[in-house]
Amino acid sequence: MEHVHDETPRAPGDPELIARVAQGDREALGELVLRHRAALHRYLRGITPSAADAEDALQRTFVAVWKGAGTFGGLASARAWLLTIARNEAYRQNRRRREEPTESETLAALGARAGWGHDSPHDLLEGAEARARLRAALDRLGEDDREVIVLRDLEGLSGEEAAQVLGLGLAAQKSRLHRARLRLMALLKEERHAVRA
Amino acid sequence: MQSEREVAGLTCGQVLEHLPDYVDQALGAELRGKIEGHLRGCDVCERFGGRYAEVARALRRELGAADELPPETGERLARELARALGSES
Questions:
Q1: Domain span at residue A45?
Q2: What is the nearest CA distance from B9 to chain A, expressed in angstroms?
Q3: Does residue B46 belong to the interface with chain A, where contact is any CB pair within 8 Å?
Q4: Residue A169 and residue A116 in one domain
Q5: CB contact, 8 Å: B8 with chain A?
Q6: Does the distance separating the beta carbons of B44 and A118 come in below 8 Å?
Q7: In this prediction, what percent of chain B has a pLDDT beyond 70?
Q8: ipTM for the assembly
């Protein structure tokens, strides 16, 4: 049997690029920037107070990657490592670290606000402008809720990767995501009722 | 909640608790089977679970995964990065 060789050059993986950045390869840094700038910007926009702050933090993130590429062990997810650096830069800029929120609302009560147990036939996202309504609801969420939703649902990080970025255990990350999604649904439901009223 | 029922060995509250793992396909076969049994027998949870999954999917579809920055943001990033790294070397 004849083997067909694929002559297409293989794109280097993120760990390889980071290793090259650690050796001072600016071209590799440029490639990392192109690959990850949009996702990092989306994430930073969710956890900083303004677009200008997000942009500043994005720039500092890649400078930190340039300086700190040698600290990437290669075992962790490269994407989670980059997001962790972005998070640190955002908080350095904001000069604060939020206190962990205390959850007083039971899951059942939160679920009820999101429509759990109500036999409504209406889809929360039916009709026009679904994207704008989702964006508006996401912007109205608290920072912790928005952050976990951006990581898991927008960027598609695994639970383990998101937990690593957030500095949480897997179970705590999961619980935060669930409550954040329910609060988002509650906001969408609220908005839908306001439109219908 | 209208009334919390037990269907297929799980209450509606237990289904709510496991919803994220169910939607993210992170459950073992046994629990997944029980939840599917509950959803088949409980319209209210079935509808709510569908909405929950749809919101999670829509976030990715509508707001995530775009590969581009606004062009002016990308240009500023390249410029500022070149300046910052220039001063580093």
A1: 14-94
A2: 18
A3: no
A4: yes
A5: no
A6: yes
A7: 90
A8: 0.86
Nearest to A81 by CA among A95, A96, A66, A71: A71
Nearest CA-CA distance, residue B61 and chain A, Å? 8
- A109-119 average pLDDT score: 87
Domain identity same for A21 and A55:
yes
Residues in chain A closer than 8 A to B53 (CB atoms): none
Residues A90 and A111 in one domain: no
A182 lies in a domain? yes
- Compare CB distances from B1 to A26, A116, A155 and report the shortest one's residue: A116
- How far apart are alpha carbons A125 and A134 in whole angstroms? 8
Are A61 and A125 in a shared domain?
A: no
Q: Which residue has the tokens 């990581």?
A: A151
C-alpha radius of gyration, chain A, whole number: 20
Q: Tell me, what CATH number does A70's domain have?
A: 1.10.1740.10
With an 8 Å Cβ cutoff, is B2 touching chain A? yes
> How many beta-carbon contacts under 8 Å exist across A and B?
122
Query: Using one digit for the tens of pLDDT, what is the confidence trace for A77-97?
Result: 899 999 999 999 998 877 655
Domain count, chain A: 2
Q: What is the CATH number of the domain that holds A183?
A: 1.10.10.10
Residue finishing a domain among A94, A117, A146: A94
Tell me the one-letter amino acid at B21: D
Residue of A nearest to B89 (CA): A24
Residue showing tokens 């439901």:
A189
Contact present, A49 and A91 (Cβ < 8 Å): no
Q: Mind listing the pLDDT tens digit for each residue in A42-70?
A: 999 888 888 889 999 999 999 999 999 99
Burial label, A35 (beta-carbon count in 10 A; 0-12, 13-18, 19+): middle
Does one domain contain both A71 and A123?
no
